[in-house]
TrEMBL record, chain A:
<dbReference type="InterPro" id="IPR042350">
    <property type="entry name" value="ATRAID"/>
</dbReference>
<keyword id="KW-0732">Signal</keyword>
<feature type="domain" description="EGF-like">
    <location>
        <begin position="153"/>
        <end position="195"/>
    </location>
</feature>
<protein>
    <recommendedName>
        <fullName>EGF-like domain-containing protein</fullName>
    </recommendedName>
</protein>
<dbReference type="GO" id="GO:0045669">
    <property type="term" value="P:positive regulation of osteoblast differentiation"/>
</dbReference>
<feature type="transmembrane region" description="Helical">
    <location>
        <begin position="202"/>
        <end position="222"/>
    </location>
</feature>
<keyword id="KW-1133">Transmembrane helix</keyword>
<keyword id="KW-0472">Membrane</keyword>
<dbReference type="InterPro" id="IPR000742">
    <property type="entry name" value="EGF"/>
</dbReference>
From TrEMBL, chain B:
<dbReference type="InterPro" id="IPR011701">
    <property type="entry name" value="MFS"/>
</dbReference>
<dbReference type="Pfam" id="PF07690">
    <property type="entry name" value="MFS_1"/>
</dbReference>
<feature type="transmembrane region" description="Helical">
    <location>
        <begin position="390"/>
        <end position="410"/>
    </location>
</feature>
<feature type="transmembrane region" description="Helical">
    <location>
        <begin position="300"/>
        <end position="321"/>
    </location>
</feature>
<keyword id="KW-0762">Sugar transport</keyword>
<feature type="transmembrane region" description="Helical">
    <location>
        <begin position="139"/>
        <end position="163"/>
    </location>
</feature>
<keyword id="KW-0812">Transmembrane</keyword>
<keyword id="KW-0813">Transport</keyword>
<comment type="similarity">
    <text>Belongs to the major facilitator superfamily. Organophosphate:Pi antiporter (OPA) (TC 2.A.1.4) family.</text>
</comment>
Length: 231, 502
């Protein structure tokens, strides 16, 4: 996806896209952080993680500046004791490393709820739920008190086991959240199904072609048609 | 008669060379773009379909890269559609040939040729490049564009044959046309080369490059082509005053100046008393022949039908050979593609050699008949080829020599003969019309053949396909039998008169 938009869309379009994208993201994040009353409590797993990774607590979130840009992103989310019944609106927190959903009456989690949560390494769920992607997607799964802890996301790409994770030709497998993988185009490949390689050298092809067309046309006109009788 | 006229038989000027090369490369570029389409089929069907996964496994993500295009559910359906596009193209090409020949004799050949080349280049650009850039994938749009492409491409062949017929007279026509009709095969090779060298940037660039090159060819033709020696005031050998442009040079030229055609003239006189009389007033501006009138010219109908049978076999080899080789012998696709070039090579040599022989003999149909009779044997032999690439290549080249040769000869040299035959008395413009009729009938045969071959193959197997080819080749002999009898009888009479004179 990134490769495709980078290659094809003009710069302006990308800029506009980015601005909109961030605006939407930020409001979604704010909603996530403010959807429950209170802030991250001291002593919880999220608070400990946040202080150890030098983040800033805002409502129920732990925010931190990204390494590549100034944009602040959610690295930890504590929605503990929040009366949640479903969790299909967490995409704004897809950069989180830690999420706490304990003490919520959640009935079940849809398969795609955590798709794209690449950095998620510590997930606290009510004990009645299974870890997203199944136990094979996590290095360690344990039940402590009333909580289920899903620790250490497994990389789905290098796994030999129940499912073939081979990506099609010209693409590289990359983790894409617990139980998910993504096939992104390999270096220099782009476009639909990663079928295209490199950039077409338009100038090198059409420059000489156009020039030789003009030269040949002129030469032939001079030697052939100049003397031709008009019709 | 001006001294520069008609006396010097082998005086080819640089105008002849340029006319030869321009018409040659016009058709090379056209056939290259046709070959491009058949070589990018795999990429196109990949573009039109979502990626295939086992039922159990989830679809690949991200969806934009792997699943977003769903014109067809799988590649099998896409292949069927591409085959249908081939048939659509061939039928509209056949219809177009009938029309464009008639137009070519009435409008300046250079304009028609240029229009055909540039127009079809533009349509191919829209078909392959623009739809991809704009992400418009629509079956009806594709079909419509391909019908249009067939119609536009059909303008080219009658025009190039007519131009060649204007420049090169009956003497040496067989050889020169044999050499010249290598254009289709050269086009195949060029198309395969162009497609393979830019395909990695995306199939749309294969279309872009071939269509731009074709458009450039159209521009060069527009500025450089002389459609007839008359345009530069030349008048050479068996030019019987049929040039589309009327010039003063032919007004004082007797119409019966064609010594090498005299035997045929006698024959036609004897057989077609009804056709215009030689003592007609000199033609001022040659009028274009009517479509039905051209159909009734001696030889046109038999050769058209014979060519329909022959082009069926020839184009079946063009479309199905790589598939047959990889299917029947289990050879890799690249190997099969490489091997199938030998059929083209045999066709080029066959067309040239047989053209040369027919020039020496002064008669074409006996050479054709002999070659076709041998071809029936060669087809049976080829169908029993052992699983050995070298033996297969040799047999393939032989079959190409015996089938591709006559096929090239009918579509070019004989079409030109028929369009400039003495029965016309130089009063009518018939070259492009006749070529269009012969090639159009042939293309109908070829289009029907694509369907029949796939049908016979799926129901009865490859062996029956080859027997079908044998029957079709026999059919083409049957259609030219009356012409053979006539030509052999004429030869016999000629020899007897010679003996009497001695």
């Amino acid at each position: 996806m990134k490769a495709g938009s980078r290659q094809l869309k003009p710069v302006v379009l990308v800029l506009v896209f980015n601005i909109c994208f961030y605006a939407i993201c930020q409001t979604a994040e704010l909603q996530l952080c403010k959807m429950c009353t209170g802030t991250v409590l001291n002593g919880t797993a999220v608070a400990q993680f946040c202080s150890s990774s030098a983040g800033r607590i805002d409502g129920r979130c732990c925010l931190k500046n990204g390494t590549t840009d100034d944009h602040e992103r959610i690295i930890g989310l504590d929605l503990s004791n929040c009366s949640l019944t479903r969790v299909d609106y967490l995409q704004g927190a897809s950069t989180s490393s830690i999420i706490d959903l304990s003490l919520n009456p959640i009935a079940n989690i849809s398969d795609s709820a955590f798709q794209g949560f690449i950095d998620l390494n510590y997930l606290i769920l009510p004990a009645g739920l299974v870890c997203p992607g199944g136990n094979t997607s996590w290095q360690k799964v344990e039940v402590k008190k009333e909580n289920r802890l899903c620790e250490g996301q497994n990389n789905m790409c290098n796994q030999t086991g129940h499912m073939s994770m081979d990506c099609p030709e010209n693409s590289i497998c990359a983790p894409y959240g617990p139980g998910f993988f993504e096939c992104s185009c390999a270096d220099n490949y782009h476009g639909y199904k990663c079928l295209r390689q490199g950039e077409f050298p338009a100038l090198q092809v059409f420059g000489p072609l156009g020039a030789s067309t003009i030269v040949i046309s002129f030469l032939l006109w001079v030697t052939q048609r100049r003397k031709a009788k008009s019709l | 008669m001006p001294p520069s006229c008609c006396g010097c038989l082998s005086q080819y000027t640089h105008h002849h060379l340029v006319a030869f090369l321009l018409t040659f490369f016009s058709y090379v570029l056209l056939h290259a773009s046709r070959k491009t389409f058949s070589n990018v089929k795999v990429s196109i069907s990949a573009q039109w379909t979502p990626s295939v996964q086992n039922d159990s496994a989830p679809a690949f993500s991200p969806e934009e890269i792997w699943e977003s295009n769903c014109l067809f559910a799988d590649e099998k359906q896409a292949t069927l559609f591409l085959g249908a596009l081939d048939s659509i193209f061939l039928f509209s090409y056949a219809v177009g040939l009938y029309l464009s020949g008639v137009i070519g004799d009435r409008v300046n050949l250079r304009y028609v040729l240029c229009f055909g080349l540039c127009g079809s280049a533009a349509v191919e650009f829209v078909f392959g490049t623009l739809t991809e850039w704009l992400h418009i994938y629509n079956i009806y749009l594709y079909c419509g564009l391909w019908v249009l492409n067939g119609l536009l491409q059909s303008a080219v062949w009658p025009c190039v044959v007519a131009v060649m017929g204007n420049w090169f007279g009956k003497t040496g026509r067989g050889f020169i046309f044999g050499l010249w009709s290598a254009c289709a095969s050269v086009g195949n090779i060029l198309g395969a080369f162009l497609a393979s060298s830019v395909l990695k940037y995306g199939y749309e660039y294969a279309f872009l490059v071939t269509s731009v090159v074709q458009f450039a060819g159209g521009v060069v033709v527009f500025f450089g082509l002389l459609t007839s020696p008359k345009e530069v005031g030349l008048c050479l050998e068996s030019d019987t005053g049929l040039c589309p442009v009327e010039t003063d040079t032919d007004s004082h030229r007797p119409l019966m100046s064609d010594e090498e055609d005299e035997v045929e003239v006698e024959v036609y006189d004897r057989r077609h008393q009804s056709i215009q009389h030689p003592e007609e007033p000199l033609a001022e501006s040659p009028k274009a022949i009517g479509f039905l009138q051209a159909f009734c010219l001696p030889g046109v109908l038999p050769y058209s039908l014979a060519y329909a049978c022959l082009k069926l076999v020839n184009y079946s080899f063009f479309f199905w050979l790589p598939f047959y080789l990889s299917n029947n012998y289990g050879w890799k696709e690249a190997e099969a593609d490489r091997l199938s070039v030998w059929y083209d090579v045999g066709g080029i040599i066959g067309g040239t050699v047989q053209g040369l022989i027919s020039d020496v003999m002064g008669k074409r149909s006996p050479v054709l008949a002999l070659s076709l009779a041998l071809a029936m044997g060669a087809l049976v032999g080829y169908s029993r080829s052992p699983n050995d690439q070298i033996i297969n290549a040799v047999l393939l080249a032989t079959t190409g020599f015996l089938i591709g040769g006559p096929s090239n000869m009918i579509s070019s040299a004989i079409s030109a003969d028929l369009g400039r035959q003495e029965a016309l008395r130089g009063s009518q413009e018939a070259l492009a019309t006749v070529t269009g009729i012969v090639d159009g009938t042939g293309s109908i045969g070829a289009a029907a053949g694509q369907y029949l071959v796939s049908l016979i193959e799926s129901k009865l197997g490859w062996m029956c396909v080859f027997y079908f080819f044998v029957v079709m080749t026999g059919g083409s002999i049957v259609f030219i039998v009356p012409l053979i009898l006539r030509e052999v009888r004429a030869m016999w009479r000629e020899r007897q008169t010679l003996r009497h004179q001695l």
